[in-house]
Design a protein that fits this description.
The complex is a heterodimer. By secondary structure, chain A is mainly α. Chain A has helices spanning about 5-25, 60-95, 100-115, 115-125, 130-160, 160-170, 175-210, 220-230, 235-265, 265-270. Chain A is built from ten helices and no strands. In chain A, α1 (about 5-25) packs across α2, α2 (about 60-95) runs antiparallel to α3 and α8 (about 220-230) runs antiparallel to α9 (about 235-265). Residues about 270-273 of chain A have low confidence and may be disordered. Chain B is mainly alpha-helical. Chain B has two domains: about 1-35, no CATH class; about 70-240, MetI-like fold, CATH 1.10.3720.10. Chain B has eleven helices and no strands. Chain B has helices at about 10-15, 20-30, 35-50, 60-95, 100-115, 120-135, 150-185, 185-195, 200-235, 240-250, 255-280. The two termini of chain B are about 40 Å apart. The model of chain B is unreliable at about 1-5 (pLDDT under 50). The chains are: A mainly alpha, B mainly alpha.
């Protein structure tokens, strides 16, 4: 089996991101909640791999812990989308053309019509900025995405012969959806999941950047960028490193998603690289 | 929905030491003393005649606030769409025509990068390079349209570019894959066989056929653009719609937030409708009634 380059590259980038975040749960080079003003705005060195910020905190340690925020927010948000979106899509597909299908899909359109970040900002404004509300805000927009992908893919499976056989064998819509449709669209959901995951990281960074994500002193990549903005003229490192981290993490996940799709469906390799 | 934000605007404006009488008087002035349902009814009915109500903090009609800021946001959005199309379509065509080559591969690598870059970070990097080091552009703000067209266009260039980058990346990829699809069609081979050069054939036959998915994406991007604009306007201190909504949230100016969100949703719907209309223009086959 030949793996596409995008898959290999994406896999290793995502793995590095994942491992570093996991390590940060047990160990970081420096404590990020102790301020050490004497040691502030240091250039990158062997002691502080990526230098220190205006409070003397080690940037590398902050990026490591910031990964926890990004990882958990994006992961749970994708989970929310899967838990609600997939069943809705399956129901819609099994009752395609019915009133319930219409209601579900029009509901989806409604959420789609709202610019996602605007609503995310609204939700965090209503319930106060916190990691949990960021998760809910990002998660809500994953629901219609997964519902659509699921419905579209499921409908094409429903027309296949083996579904008719299952029907003749006496299985109901619920069992068919669960036992035959779901396993056949799982690949697609995994691909979409990795893309939504990377979008979730971007969205979380955006929310934190405008101050509506996790609150200080918990480090997050978006807020590190916001903090660095006023110091960009004399300390560009502060802005550079968290930004590059976000890019690499998102890039890795996107490549992983694309690569997985190519792996599953060699025909798509040509079209979408 | 905004009604449930903790804290009411009147008490927020007057501070924690305000007398209950004062708070009540202000509430009356702002029309906050009637029930929630009555306020909702007034708001909905007012919207149809362009009356969005009066902002609690600015004390001017919301429609005035919005009108003042549309002059920044709409040109910014149009500029960004223009830039992203300008960048994306040549790259898409170039990549598709060199499909599978190293050039194609490296361009697609760049678009992957473009999608992964958070636009506010890209905005900061642009400021760092072009404003701080090269001093070509100012780091933010806008002089106002009465000061001349070009000077404003220049002020909007960096923000529009920051907004356009991720959109251009997505668009270039879509353009490329749509074009590759049409390049493998029989009619394209026939066009080539009839003596057209590659680019003539692309221009006459392939481009139009590849345009439908591209249009769909441009339409979808509009709502991303709006979301992006909220953050980008904050990076560049542009007095646009995005900044208005953001300040509205911070100051608990709920009437502003509600109205602007409604306007944004409305504009997304209109843009999608225009995109549907554009299909008919691009593809005459769709004009036939079934």
């Amino acid at each position: 089996m030949k793996f596409p380059i995008s898959f290999i590259l994406g896999f290793f980038l995502s793995l590095i991101f994942f491992v570093i975040t996991m390590i940060s749960f047990f160990w970081v080079p420096y404590d990020v909640e102790t301020l050490n003003i004497a040691n502030r705005l240091k250039e990158p060195s062997f002691e502080n791999l990526l230098g220190t910020d205006h409070f003397g905190r080690d940037i590398f340690s902050m990026i490591m812990i910031g990964g926890q925020t990004s990882l958990s927010v994006a992961l749970i948000a994708v989970g929310l989308g899967l838990i609600f979106g997939v069943p809705l899509g399956l129901i819609s597909a099994s009752l395609r053309g019915s009133l319930i299908d219409d209601i579900i899909m029009r509901g989806n359109d409604l959420i789609f019509a709202f610019p996602s970040l605007v609503i995310a900002i609204l939700i965090t404004a209503v319930f106060g900025p916190s990691a949990l509300n960021a998760i809910i805000a990002i998660g809500i927009f994953n629901i219609p995405v997964f519902a659509r992908v699921t419905r579209g893919a499921a409908i094409s499976i429903w027309t296949l012969d083996f579904i008719s056989s299952a029907r003749i064998a006496g299985k109901g819509s619920f069992r068919i959806s669960l036992e035959h449709i779901l396993p056949n669209i799982l690949n697609l959901l995994i691909v979409q999941g990795s893309i939504q995951f990377s979008l979730g990281i971007l969205a979380e960074a955006g929310l934190s950047y405008v101050g509506l994500g996790v609150q200080p002193p918990t480090p997050s990549w978006g807020r590190m960028l916001a903090d660095s903005q006023t110091m960009i003229s004399f300390a560009p490192n502060l802005a550079l490193f968290p930004g590059i981290t976000i890019i690499l993490a998102v890039l890795g996940l996107n490549l992983l998603g694309d690569g997985t799709r190519d792996l599953i469906d060699p025909r798509s390799q040509d079209k979408i690289k | 929905m905004i009604e449930i934000i903790p804290g009411d605007p009147a008490s927020f404006m007057l501070g924690i030491n305000a007398e209950p009488d004062t708070v009540h008087a202000l509430k009356k002035e702002l029309g906050l003393d009637v029930s929630k349902f009555e306020r909702y009814y007034n708001w909905i009915t007012g919207m149809f005649i362009g009356d969005f109500g009066v902002s609690y903090t600015y004390r001017v009609p919301v429609s005035e606030l919005v009108m003042a800021r549309i002059g920044v946001s709409v040109p910014l959005a149009l500029y960004a769409i223009f830039l992203s199309t300008l960048i994306a379509i040549p790259i898409g065509i170039f990549s598709a025509s060199n499909h599978g080559s190293f050039k194609d591969w490296s361009f697609m690598g760049f678009t992957q990068l473009g999608i992964a870059i958070p636009n506010f970070w890209f905005a900061m990097v642009l400021v760092l390079i072009f404003s701080i080091y090269l001093k070509w552009f100012s780091a933010g703000g806008i002089p106002g349209w009465d000061k001349g067209f070009l000077i404003n266009l220049k002020a909007l260039t960096l923000p529009a570019f920051a907004l356009a980058l991720p959109q251009a990346s997505i668009l270039a990829r879509i353009m490329r894959s749509a074009l590759i699809e049409t390049l493998s069609q029989d009619y394209f081979r026939t066009a080539r066989a009839s003596g057209l050069t590659f680019f003539q054939a692309v221009e006459k036959h392939a481009f139009r056929n590849a345009l439908i998915p591209v249009l769909t994406i441009i339409g979808l991007q509009f709502s991303f653009l709006i979301a992006g604009a909220i953050i980008i306007e904050n990076v560049f201190f542009l007095p646009g719609i995005g900044r208005l909504i953001f300040q509205g949230i911070i100051q608990r100016d709920l009437i502003v937030v509600e109205s602007v969100v409604m306007l944004l949703v409305f504009s997304v719907i209109i843009v999608n409708f225009l995109v549907d209309m554009a299909y008919l223009y691009v593809d005459p086959r769709l004009r036939v009634k079934k």
